[in-house]
């Protein structure tokens, strides 16, 4: 019974984008470089700095 229902549950709703439609990241585009490389690294670095500062203030 479930093997008949399973394919129906996996269908995407009409009007939504299919994950296969996505293009790979274009590293020649400045926007892609900033959004996918620079911003995540910046967030991680700022988080580490914030945690160290918080730890020093605690002591």
What would your notes on this structure say?
The longest helix is centred in the last third of the chain and has 29 residues. The chain has a domain of 36 residues. The model has no long low-confidence stretch (mean pLDDT 85). Helices cover 63% and strands 0% of the residues. The chain has 2 helices and no strands.
Please trace the helix and strand order, writing H or E for each element.
HH
Tally the helices: 2
Number-wise, the strands total: 0
Question: pLDDT average, as an integer?
Answer: 85
Secondary structure class reads mainly alpha
Fraction of residues in helix: 55-70%
Largest sheet: none
Question: What is the radius of gyration computed over CA atoms, rounded to a whole number of angstroms?
Answer: 22 Å
- Shape annotation: elongated
> Strand share of the residues?
under 5%
Distance between the termini: 62 Å
Low-confidence blocks of residues: none
Provide a concise account of the structure shown.
By secondary structure, the protein is an all-alpha fold. The chain contains 2 helices and no strands.
Write the layout of secondary structure elements.
Layout (H helix, E strand, L loop, with lengths): L1 H8 L20 H29 L1
Protein traits:
59 residues; single chain; 63% helix; mainly alpha
